[in-house]
Design brief:
five-stranded mixed β-sheet, Helix Hairpins, four-stranded antiparallel β-sheet, about 400 residues, Adenine-n6-DNA-methyltransferase TaqI, Chain A, domain 2, alpha+beta
Amino acid sequence: MINRESLGQHWPIRPLGDVCEFLDNLRRPVTESDRIAGPYPYYGANGQQGRINGYIFDEPLVLLAEDGGYFGDSSRSIAYRIDGKTWVNNHAHVLRPKDGTDIGYLCRVLEHYDVTPFVTGTTRGKLTKAGASAIPIPWPPLNEQRRIALILDSADALRHKRQTAIQKLDLLTRSIFAEIEKSGSLEFRSISDLISSRYLLLHKDGNHGSQYPRADDFDDEGVAFLSVKAIGSDGEVITPHVDYLKEKKAKTLKIGWIEDGDVLLAHNASVGRVGIYRGQFGKALIGTSLTCFRPNTSKLLTSFLAASLSSSRFQLELQKNMSQTTRNQVPITAQKRLAIPVAPLAIQNRFAARVKTIDELRGRIKTGELLFRDLTASLQSKAFQGEI
């Protein structure tokens, strides 16, 4: 991430309010229940949130998160570009570059800026218009801005190609599982039945009520504590999003402990997200937003269980169950009634062997993607210091 201290003195420094115009007075929020679907994108703090039947803006603009943004998270962007007929709610600042400011450059400066010194509020950080206007921006000549933006755009395009390759590998795993479904080799059994027949050795979430950890129970180190935010869309644990519980508090907890090979299902918030805990933190704990499925690997393999929970049929059952409640969740008791696909162990072994090959390839691509992300961040830092 960049900040004022990292900008150097090569280029003049201008406050954001001097290089762009805020169009915040034009934006209008519309609740999801009142939103009428239409052809125009509806934007918020972190990107498009749906479509709507009208538009407010019709020009190239930069949106900067006002509240609800990923402030302080170097892996997530807080600014992005929009163009054409669009609608923006009140959770994103709307920025129109002034003369002498390139829109691509403006977005690149802001997307990974550490704005935490300008954010107010404790429970839900807010980047007010006054705070945003004061953000210091390096301001080279227009041609140099365009050159920097082009270099960073090219680097980002290469990184996106690696991400696309990883997504295609995820689709390949799903297609292999779909082949097994089509073969008629699957048997659909309730989670309750799998528990009683010892296919599952554990089906449990984290500690509720008075045992749930409070804010002051956490620290910068201790026992890894995973919530739904720590499970990536690719099923891997996102280390920067793992919290740490103080050892003293962790020792008081009897449930919620997870082990290497456990499969985690998000049953609250991002319902349906599936991940595998690979033991990278040793013994760890989960919160109430995750369910731990511990397979008996003599009957049910970890990779096959994860694929079963990720299958379209089970995910549809989750969504149906969730629609019967007033909250975005599928609690433990409701899960037990749901059925997941199970196959004979020989078929599971063949599936696991193929998935292992895919996972190894994904790991190599992901390692390269992470290295490339670091290089891109370094390139970005040097660009705004006038070193490229």
